[in-house]
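Practice problem 4.
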């Protein structure tokens, strides 16, 4: 797994929004690069407006990261995910959130 997943600090400040609604802002983002895919930005929950996220019943499984749980933001269903207890090698993303393209993650 060490060759498959790489988690590194993401330099700079990131703003996370759905449309015009800012749902988070952080200087503590992480980049997770998996295999040959581009990096995904993960943001600590503490830097998100968790009151605008609604947990859903959706679950998926990744052989390298573990089980993901999902959140909706308003009418946008299952656009945020999290690995609450990631597998060995991916522990760095525990307690962080990642986003589907419906959510804008921008470096500011």
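Answer key:
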């Amino acid at each position: 797994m060490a060759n498959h997943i790489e988690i590194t600090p993401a330099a700079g400040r990131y703003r996370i929004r759905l449309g015009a609604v800012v749902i988070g802002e952080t200087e503590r983002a992480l980049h997770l690069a998996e295999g040959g895919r581009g990096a995904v930005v993960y943001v600590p929950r503490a830097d998100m407006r968790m009151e605008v996220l609604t947990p859903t019943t959706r679950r998926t499984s990744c052989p390298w990261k573990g089980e993901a749980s999902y959140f909706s933001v308003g009418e946008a269903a299952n656009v945020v995910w999290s690995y609450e207890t990631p597998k060995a090698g991916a522990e760095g993303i525990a307690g962080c959130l990642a986003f589907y393209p419906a959510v804008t993650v921008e470096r500011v």
